[in-house]
């Protein structure tokens, strides 16, 4: 925004009786497009400010500074840990075992770091020269979680840059973690710059209960934290909880009442599942088969405790 005073010619002043017009304010064209944009300068500055304030608690700033310093032992160790974490995340391999009986194995992450040190002399020397306290910090589970969080933030940022200022659709499903806590999985569907339909998993959101008001509030807060507005939704689909899919007093109805362009598409997989359940319940043999399948699968996947 630029403030300036436009001078009035002398003849105009005399003609209007010496009245000087008030200064006018000129708005720079396009400044409204920057405000609220995912890739705008204001949003980028906010992310940089947030990372600067939390640099002692987050590993993200270290990925940009320490990793680039090849002569710094901590930077070499951090880069090695990051490479191992990226490989495990890409392959979907857990970092450590939840079963305490695996005392002979330190976990996939630490075992891979030791393997890395075995064939790279520079990496082994960097770990040996580093302070013992910092070495133990790199081996802690808290640091491993920070690595996963930093990688997730980088992936989410790439997804948001691909979305840009375009509209998107929501695909939401409910899930449970190992402690049986309710979570809401959020997937975005959008069209990229090449005109291709893209689906990206954005994250999980913890929900205290599955009431429509709570789910909508968590959804709005989740999108706002990532710089997305619920007004940009052009489609919504749900799977799982019945109060998400119902016709009255539910999430999709509340969103459509405020934003009519957010059209609702029923999950046809749910309809097929309901048909299969209804058909299988009419046959005792089929019902008994589907009853025993999850028992066999759980017994096969369960770790041997003997």
From TrEMBL:
Domain DUF4371: 43-249
Superkingdom of this protein's organism: Eukaryota
InterPro entries linked to this entry: DUF4371
Protein name, as recorded: DUF4371 domain-containing protein
Native organism taxonomy: Eukaryota, Viridiplantae, Streptophyta, Embryophyta, Tracheophyta
